[in-house]
Design a protein that fits this description.
two-stranded antiparallel sheet; Putative cobalt-precorrin-6Y C(15)-methyltransferase (Decarboxylating); cobalamin biosynthesis; single chain; 33% helix; Methyltranfer_dom; 5 helices; methyltransferase; alpha/beta; 182 residues; Rossmann fold
Length: 182
């Protein structure tokens, strides 16, 4: 289910989840969860773990609730609030997705770095060049090595008797791992 809330496209979710390298027992934070599409996919993979979907939008929260019910998930909890403050009471994570920051990217990434377990991974999805550059700078500062890929997806649309590939907005996916000694 989607409504008018931004949803991570399937192709971007697949790559984001691959970068996460989830294990069944992981604790996952999905910050700026939107519709919860990544939260749901993560909960389906981390069956012995737990996923926390952090979202501030009432419409997004409603959609996440609907999607939780549709998929019968009991290892997914919605945290209503604004990050980084909304993260304070959560257990330390093994994996973190950042899909939206509401202008609080620096505070979110600082908080995540302090709480992410050694060997943990963070994945930040961005759509603007400014956010990608800022996230890259912060992730390099905190984690050293950062992987970055840009995903450009095109979908087939009908144009009269023909079909065209219509490009969607590219998404930059940045990922890093917290080393024990960094």
């Amino acid at each position: 289910m989607r409504g008018n809330v931004p949803m991570t496209k399937e192709e971007v979710r697949v790559i984001t989840l691959a970068k996460a390298r989830l294990a069944p027992n992981h604790v996952v934070w999905d910050i700026g969860a939107g519709t919860g599409s990544l939260s749901v996919e993560a909960a389906l993979q981390a069956t012995g773990g737990f996923v926390y979907a952090v979202e501030r939008s009432p419409a997004g929260i409603h959609l996440i609730q609907s999607n939780m019910k549709a998929f019968g998930l009991d290892n997914l909890k919605i945290i209503e609030g604004v990050a980084p403050e909304a993260l304070d009471e959560l257990p330390d994570p093994d994996r973190v997705f950042v899909g939206g920051s509401g202008g609080h990217l620096t505070g979110i990434l600082e908080s995540v770095y302090q709480r992410l377990l050694p060997g943990g991974r963070i994945i930040v999805n961005t759509i603007t060049l400014e956010t990608a550059a800022h996230a890259l700078e912060l992730l390099q500062q905190f984690y050293g090595d950062v992987d970055a890929v840009q995903i450009s997806v095109a979908r087939v649309v009908k144009a009269g008797a023909s079909h065209l590939l219509k490009g969607m907005n590219p998404v930059t996916v940045l990922s890093a791992e917290k080393r024990a000694n960094y």
